[in-house]
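Notebook p. 47: complex prediction with calcium ion.
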Amino acid sequence: MQRPARGRATGQAFGEMFSDAASLLERQTAQVRRWLSIPRSFVTSPHMSHQPLVSSVPAPASNPRRLSLRMLAGLCVMAGFVTSGSGAAHAATAKPNILYLLADEWRPMAMGFAGDPNVQTPNLDRLAKEGLHYRNAMSVCPVCTPHRAALMTGRFPTSTGMFLNDAYLPSEELCMAEILEQAGYDRGFIGKWHIDGHGRESFIPRERRQGFDYWKGNECTHTYNHSPYYSGDDPEKKLWDGYDAFAQTKDAQGYLKEKAGSGRPFALVIAFGPPHFPHATAPDEYKKLYQAAEFKLAANVPATMQAVVRQELIGYYAHCTAIDHCIGELLQTLDDTGLAENTIVVFSADHGETMGAHGNKPAQKQVPWDEAARVPFLLRYPGAHGPKGATVKTPLTTPDILPTLLGLCGVPIPKSIEGTDLSATVRDPGFAEDRAALYEGVAPFANLGPEGAANNRGYRAIRTSRYTYVRDLDGPWLLYDDEADPLQMNNLANKPEAAAVQKDLDARLREELKKRGDEFRDGQYYIDLWGYDAKLGGSISYRINAPVQSPRRRQ
Ligand SMILES: [Ca+2]
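Predicted complex, structure tokens below:
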């Protein structure tokens, strides 16, 4: 067998390292054990890299070679773990921590520093001053489960089959916490998971947590004041005390204080439920901050929708300010514990929300406009970019996030990951501005009402540092110059004056799709290809006792 890229040892010595690794990693997941049971003859070539990479067209899921890639990724991560020193204690002194704050349905413009004249987000404004604001960050498939699956795997929805809500992400997928576990990290998860697909309030046992060890999670709820969760391996449902984000923050502060003295690196993901609707359930003291009549609405909200939008925005902004308060508490804890300097803090969201923009009624997403498909993305890591913040124009899509974090942590990037390591943009915010970030609606199921019904269509799109370009099945659909037209009100698609730009963007979109092996077909094709029992425009049932649906590629 050829040795892996990081292995300086012979095949025999690698076998010994492998044996050592197996004895060291007694707590490793059932998934890694499965890798160990796969014959070594599957290990054929180096598949790890410290360099930024974009994988070639992925093999289909049914191809055994893909299993071998995944197995090899696990082996190489373990080899790296063994060869990097004498164990986790050594790694702990060098590796940064990760605090990943994921909101649900937070529009990218709904932050004070980003120009929203209505919302109050003093703590995010502080984070933007001290960190990097990625202003062209896109949700790869702007709805809940697809984003979360891509965040955890670093892979595209058309590669994992995770493009519908309430699907179960197969345990065989190599995920963020499993990779970090092998690099010596403790891994905590608090809040909304939504990639388990076994019912929205069901207990999620350890083997379905994709590598997280500390667990205060629930699949999906929007009852923020009576919000269920499960703690560790206890299958008894508990309720967060009061407004869930506040209680989750308190729990996370305890985690941070404990880890500060542990001598081990950690990654903590807090996935807040708000500001996802219902908006009226936001805490009263935050709703009092906002008056419907005082809001200044963007010009892309049609007059017919303004009354309902004003009403929804009271609670929406109240949820935002409440979460902003949580973020302030967490930043303070990082300061108090001395963790701030060596902790990568990310604030982002799974997607935005329409809130009337372009005639799409509130409480929806999936459509390709900025309000739904672009996300907030703030990253603070003083060790890499220094004490000051900056705006980053480099476009980013969800699968890029995991390899970027791994790159910042000095953890080898498994070949299964399809996104690009953009950690160079953290060290040099002007890096790689000329790239295209792919995002898509594979089999959308939004309920946009009569005004927006025609917008509920499959699409493939790219964001560059200046333009948004979107194709539907009939051809070019949208083209915006986001610098000149940030509200996306002047569609240049098929306009003679934009012909040269469109030709270039179209070629770049095709190039991105080619990398993914995606021919862009009708949504029902992907539903059938991945074996789902669902109709185009519909979703997977999450009623109690509905069958679990997990993507299994049929060819
Ligand atoms: Ca969501």
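Notes: The longest strand covers residues 266-275. The pocket of calcium ion is lined by residues 104-105, 144, 276, 350-351 (CB under 6 Å).
Next step: compare against the earlier run before touching the bench.
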